[in-house]
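User: Reviewer 2 asked us to show a designed sequence for the structure in our supplementary figure. I'm pasting the C-alpha cells here. Could you produce the per-position amino acids so we can include them in the response letter?
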C-alpha cells in the first residue's frame, strides 16, 4: 500500500526546517510535505500581539527569505495559516529562545535577531532579555507564554499532533577541530555550549512534563558539525548523518501513529 504523505508545520530553526530540504534529505517529499513554517521566532514573540508592518528601503534590500522572516514575525500570520492549512503534525524547537532572546516592547516581545538589529523594533528597544543571562526571570515569563501557546493549539487545531524536537548545540567539527576556537580566531562571539544545552534540556523537560507532546530526540547520539555546510559553520549546522537520522525518526514516529 502506498505511504500517505504527512502534512507538517514547524515553529523552529534551521535544525528542524533543514530536514525538509532536498539538499539534506533528497527524498523527504516521498514522506512529508511542509505546509507552514515560522522561522527562528521566540515563543515570547510568537504569542505576543501582532505589530504594524511597513515596507521600507532597508527591508527592500533584504533577500526574500529574510524579508519573509521579518514580516511574519510582525504579522503573526502563522496562526491563521495553521488553521487553514491543517497540518497533521507541528514540530517545535526552542533554538530562538535559547540562542537569540527577545527585545521587550511596551505590550509585546520580539525576537532579538542580530540581522535585524538596525530595524524597528530592535533598533529602539531599551531592554534585551537573554535566557542565559537571567534564566529564572526569562523562564518564568516563558512558562506563561508556553501555556498560552499550547492552549491555543488545543483549542484551534486539536487534531494536530505536537512533536517536540530535542537537539543540542555542538562544538566539534568532523575532523576534530572546534567551532568556538574557529570563531575566537576571527573575533566572532563564542558561546558556552554546556550552559546553553543545560537550558535547552530545562525547556524541553518542562514541556514534556506539562503538555501533550510526542518527542523526536536527537540528543541520544553525538552529531558533528559540517565544515562545508551550505549555510556556513555554526553550532547547529551538522553533518548529513543528523538530517538522515532525523527523517528516519520522524517517519517511524508518524507510522506508529497510523
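Assistant: Here is a per-position design you can include in the supplement:
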Amino acid at each position: 500500500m502506498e505511504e500517505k504523505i504527512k502534512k507538517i508545520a514547524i515553529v523552529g530553526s534551521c535544525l528542524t526546517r533543514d530536514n525538509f530540504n532536498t539538499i539534506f534529505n533528497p527524498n523527504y517529499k516521498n514522506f512529508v510535505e511542509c505546509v507552514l513554517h515560522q522561522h527562528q521566532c521566540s515563543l515570547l514573540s510568537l504569542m505576543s500581539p501582532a505589530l504594524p508592518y511597513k515596507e521600507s528601503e532597508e527591508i527592500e534590500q533584504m533577500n526574500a527569505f529574510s524579508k519573509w522572516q521579518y514580516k511574519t514575525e510582525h504579522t503573526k500570520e502563522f496562526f491563521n495559516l495553521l488553521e487553514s492549512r491543517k497540518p497533521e503534525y507541528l514540530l517545535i524547537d526552542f533554538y530562538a529562545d535559547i540562542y537569540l532572546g527577545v527585545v521587550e516592547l511596551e505590550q509585546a516581545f520580539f525576537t532579538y535577531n542580530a540581522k535585524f538589529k538596525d530595524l524597528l523594533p530592535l533598533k529602539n528597544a531599551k531592554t534585551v532579555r537573554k535566557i542565559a543571562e537571567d534564566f529564572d526571570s526569562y523562564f518564568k515569563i516563558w512558562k506563561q507564554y508556553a501555556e498560552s501557546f499550547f492552549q491555543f493549539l488545543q483549542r484551534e487545531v486539536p487534531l494536530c499532533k505536537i512533536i517536540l524536537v530535542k537537539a543540542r548545540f555542538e562544538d566539534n567539527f568532523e575532523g576534530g577541530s572546534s567551532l568556538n576556537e574557529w570563531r575566537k580566531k576571527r573575533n566572532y562571539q563564542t558561546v558556552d555550549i554546556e550552559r546553553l544545552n543545560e537550558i535547552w534540556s530545562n525547556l524541553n523537560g518542562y514541556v514534556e512534563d506539562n503538555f501533550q507532546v510526542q518527542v523526536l530526540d536527537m540528543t541520544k547520539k553525538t552529531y558533528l558539525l559540517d565544515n562545508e555546510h551550505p549555510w556556513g559553520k555554526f553550532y547547529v549546522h551538522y553533518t548529513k548523518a543528523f538530517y538522515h537520522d532525523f527523517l528516519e525518526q520522524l517517519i517511524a514516529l508518524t507510522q506508529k501513529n497510523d
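For the response letter, you might also mention the following. The chain has one domain: 6-257. The radius of gyration is 18 Å.
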